[in-house]
Design goal:
By secondary structure, this protein is an alpha+beta fold. Helix content is about 45%, strand content about 10%. The protein is built from 16 helices and 12 strands.
């Protein structure tokens, strides 16, 4: 025994009895336990029906073991019988020897086969997974005009293969860790040895292993474990469904986290600039990439500040508008029965409601729903004198700016910040908006991602590539990211 762990014993019957009890056999019809003669001793295979490839189990494990001569292995010490079968009969790769029954049960539930022998207190776990999985598809959230058109799937092994096909380097390392309590979830940490910082890797690994939740984890749950500021509006890790972008994370010295059952990858540490970059920035020429980033930054600014600025001008700074425009605004606003702040708040929430409904509706119905709802509600609201036409234009422009945010989690956080600034603009004009914006910027500058500053390398100043707001030519992007391991 080792602590509370249950270890295998030399008696095959006793080991199978424990496994039957743990897996609920024979009541659990999915549990497959096949006891057979392998040469001069008895053996058994434990697996879960539907999770393993039955043909591989039959052809590579059962058949070669059962065809051994009756006296084969008679002189082999009992403690080495499993190793004997792996050397003389079984033809499965990869495999791993284990003694802990808890680990053997978890491996069997994960789709692997467990081989046990009489007189041997060691079991062999063989990867013969054969469950159904989705084929590699096209990215849905990160589409590009030029560049690869393949995305991750729900199979962690397939996702690792996609990354290794791109990053063909001997330094690429894969570590499997298990997170969770009663329902374990297998995660993979991928990094480049000598490039990723060891302290950063230890911090991420420790936080994942400390998880004890009793339900399956997704990539979003793992992100909550890794991040250092759970109450922040801005995500501290960057998620992607594209193998080529995850490969760029590895080259920069980041750690890529894959979760079994999730079709995306998590990059840590991350900066706020990672959340604003898109794959198109790298696949297009640097002049085009720089222009697109400028457009994107303008859109983010409009989305965040325009509604609050509109209210600030109307309530506290009307001198900034021309008399003709101001007269038009007051004339249309005089027919609206609700205060301008409530009017702006309701229209902003209505736009978000239409966006969310269009996103959740299936297929082409979502696009039609967004267009029809926007046209009908907007035109009807203006005709009924519920909202002013200028406010409708402001809300629509702000919503279009929000669509420029490439990261979905960041876009939702900016929507919440937009409501804060809208309220500040209604209460105190530009002064209150400036104080709120300053507080948000200070909070962002104080945030870390896996021990790395979120706003670096701009502030605090760090050495690295000239690829922050401007997309510079490739000859100026040879340096590693600032959070990568520094060579002496």
């Amino acid at each position: 025994m080792c602590g509370d762990a249950i270890m295998l014993c030399p008696l095959l019957g006793r080991n199978l009895e424990i496994l039957r009890e743990r897996l609920g056999a024979p009541r659990n019809a999915d549990v497959l336990i096949r006891r057979f003669r392998s040469g001069a001793f008895e053996s058994a295979v434990v697996a879960i029906d539907g999770m393993v490839n039955a043909e591989r189990v039959n052809e590579n494990i059962l058949k070669p073991c059962m065809e051994l001569p009756e006296q084969e292995g008679e002189s082999i010490p009992p403690c080495e019988r499993v190793s004997f079968l792996m050397e003389r009969a079984v033809s499965v790769l990869p495999m791993k020897m284990k003694e802990n029954i808890d680990e053997l049960v978890a491996d069997a539930l994960g789709g692997q086969a467990v081989l046990l022998c009489e007189g041997c207190a060691v079991g062999c776990v063989m990867d013969v997974r054969g469950f159904e999985k989705r084929t590699i598809g096209r990215p849905e959230a990160e589409k590009v005009v030029l560049g690869p058109h393949e995305s991750f799937s729900e199979s962690i092994r397939t996702n690792i293969t996609l990354l290794r096909r791109i990053v063909q380097r001997e330094e690429l390392t894969t570590e499997f860790v298990t997170a969770g309590g009663a329902m374990k979830t297998r995660c993979a940490l991928l990094y480049l040895r000598g490039t990723a910082d060891e302290e950063m890797l230890t911090r991420v690994r420790r936080r994942i292993l400390a998880c004890s939740y009793d339900f399956p984890l997704t990539t979003g749950d793992v992100e909550h474990l890794v991040e250092e500021h759970p109450l922040a509006l801005i995500p501290q890790c960057v998620r992607t469904e594209r193998p080529d972008r995850a490969a760029s994370f590895l080259a920069e010295g980041q750690i890529v986290i894959l979760t079994d059952g999730s079709p995306d990858a998590l990059g840590a540490p991350a900066t706020i600039w990672h959340l604003l970059h898109t794959p198109d920035d790298a696949t297009l020429r640097w002049q085009v990439g720089t222009f697109l980033r400028a457009i994107r930054l303008i859109g983010v600014t409009i989305h965040l500040l325009l509604p609050g600025t509109y209210l600030s001008i109307l309530r506290f700074h009307p001198e900034l508008l021309s008399p003709m425009l101001l007269t038009s605004v007051y004339e249309t606003g005089s027919r609206v029965p609700i205060p301008v702040y409530l009017e702006a708040l309701l229209m902003t929430l209505a736009f978000d409601l239409i966006t969310e409904a269009g996103l959740r509706a299936p297929g082409a119905l979502g696009n039609a729903l967004g267009i029809v709802s926007g046209l009908i509600l907007g035109q009807s609201a203006v005709s009924a004198d519920i909202v002013s036409p200028l406010l409708l234009i402001v809300v629509a422009a702000s919503g279009l700016g929000g669509f420029c945010v490439p990261n979905y989690a960041l876009s939702v956080g900016l929507k919440i910040a937009q409501l804060f600034l809208l309220t500040c603009g209604a209460l105190g004009g530009f002064y209150a908006m400036g104080l709120c914006l300053l507080a948000l910027l200070c909070a962002v500058c104080a945030m870390n991602s896996a021990g790395s500053p979120l706003t670096a390398p701009l502030t605090p100043k760090r050495p690295g590539n000239r690829d922050i707001l401007l997309r510079m030519p490739m000859q100026h992007q040879k340096a590693r990211a600032f959070f990568a391991k520094k060579h002496e």
